Amino acid sequence: MAISVSRFAALTFLAVASACLVKFGQLPVAACIPLVFVLPFFFVTYGGGGDGKTPPGPVALPVFGNWLQVGNDLNHRNLVGMAKKYGDVFLLRLGVRNLAVVSDPKLAAEVLHTQGVEFGSRPRNLVWDIFTDSGKDMVFTEYGDHWRKMRRIMTMPFFTNKVVAQYREMWQEEMNAVVESLRAAPAEGVVVRHRLQLMLYNIMYRMMFDVRFESAEDPLFQQATRFNSERSRLAQSFDYNYGDFIPILRPFLKGYLEKCRDLQSRRLAFFNDNYVEKRRKVMSARQGNNDRLRCAMDYILEAEMNGEISSDNVIYIVENINVAAIETTLWGMEWALAELVNHPSCQNRLREELQRVLGEEPVTETSLPRLPYLQAVVKETLRLHSPIPLLVPHMNLDAAKLGGYEIPKRTKVIVNAWWLGNNPEWWVRPEEFRPERFLEEEGEVEAVVGGGKVDFRFLPFGVGRRSCPGIILAMPLLGLVVGKLVKEFEMVPPPGTEKIDVTEKGGQFSLQIAKHATIVFCPVLAA
Fold first, then answer.
1. Which of 44, 159, 194, 444 has the fewest beta carbons closer than 10 A?
2. Which cofactor(s) does the record list (predicted)?
3. H or E element that contains 512
């Protein structure tokens, strides 16, 4: 069916105007209902995939693509519904953006491993560009030499077994402080996230800067958490998608983007003035090479002095650690404790294992391999509540093949890792919190990012070149916190409550518990 230029222009203008008015509350949605029927009739030849070359997908309209059909909220559950209709790989055309969604373990292996180079870059968007200065960090930079250099420089002082061994005593110190504070917790319970947040910030800031916060009332702690929370809220929101997808709507995002720029300017100045510059002064006072490097920032600043990275790269490494290392680990801890409160039989079984294996010994990083049920609890938490349910998006710089289809160049490629771990075709009763599965029918499944046998149904940290290097910290930290708290306390809901509310709150690439859990901690009496 041919269409005249004038008709195309008229209908496009009508669609743009109507979408804008609906978006900003100036036109009743009902007034645009005719467009839903009229526009597809005129534009049936504007394909939505399924042409045998590109992946299938809904019919796309000029200018908007599929945005009017799918909206801004592309969360993991909504994408499952589309996968059931269009298949294990489907294509959405969202304004000027192409989005390919992968919902199959074999295709995930193609994206993340077999064709890891082809799909190794990261897509850009208006807000991420502000928070990474167009890819000056490690997480969102394009695949290539700069990414390899940044990954190496971040890995050495943070993400190795040597680093875990170096800091294990400090970890114990911070976790024991949590235990002691919870012994004095009120009978009505505490919002445990608040205490775990202080612990995690102290662990990461001691590793990164050799500093700690004395309490949650520390003004620097309050500033850091406030800055990072607002950054996460703005970056994770789906609300700005329309302006990223459709350039002619970007003027409506002006206020949002200015808010992002202002926040990021103040936030980076806070990190730089209070932490990075202080370590620069320490480094400049070093007496030759005999003075040992005390923290991760010293190694990173040494790389800067050697000309390997710029001062901008330094501050964006700090940005990545604050968001990626702290917040995601905290989400996992919240989910694990909430599920153990809601499943007392699992909590009791874990406590029995801890008492039987360790007796009076404390839970330590070296004791974790002797505690298989504790490891199963951690894995089940990450399966059921993947902190990054869609992983961090990938992108192919050039046209590529996937599942027999052509993927246009610079397509944003999402792997729905949450669905890989919750599809009833691949898991027994996946909706249940049942750690036993990892000791029984799924006993061989491990959380790995490469180097071993990867089960592509279970990818809480991704896999391959762009996997999360933080797995080496996150897994033991999760195990230690859960193990210590269950060994020392019986955890129950607050009075008058039967269960903890585990309603989800999703984002661009996050999955948090919507309402921070209040938990009562009852000390376990020694036998």
1. 444
2. heme
3. strand 511-513
CATH of domain 145-523: 1.10.630.10
Angle in degrees, CA 136, 139, 141, rounded to 5: 45
Q: What's the CA gap between 167 and 149, in Å, rounded?
A: 24
Whole-model pTM: value is 0.89
Total number of residues shown for the chain: 527
Task: At 245, list the tokens.
Answer: 């997808």
pLDDT at residue number 72: 83
Question: DSSP E strands: which ranges in 79-187?
Answer: 89-94, 97-102
- Which tokens go with 522? 């009852």
More confidently predicted of 52 and 340: 340
> Which of 514, 516, 327, 389 shows the shortest CA–CA distance to 75?
389
- Three-state SS string across 391-420, please? CCCEECCCCEEECCEEECCCCEEEECHHHH
Q: Which position has the token pair 């992108």?
A: 395
The first and second tokens of residue 289, run together, are 């090479």
Distance CA 142, CA 111 (A): 15
CB 347 within 8 A of CB 310: no
Q: Break the chain into its structural domains and give their ranges.
A: 145-523
Q: Which residues pair with 492 in a beta bridge?
A: 520
For residues 224 and 73, the answer to whether their CB atoms sit within 8 Å is: no
Half-sphere exposure of 216 (CA within 13 A, CB side): 12
Contacts for 298 with CB less than 8 Å, ≥ 6 apart: 157, 279, 282, 283
- Distance, in Å, from the CA atom of 355 to the CA atom of 358, rounded to the nearest integer, reads 5
Helix (H, G, I), strand (E, B) or coil at 390: coil
Q: What is the pLDDT of residues 327-359, one digit of tens each?
A: 899 999 999 999 999 999 999 999 999 999 999
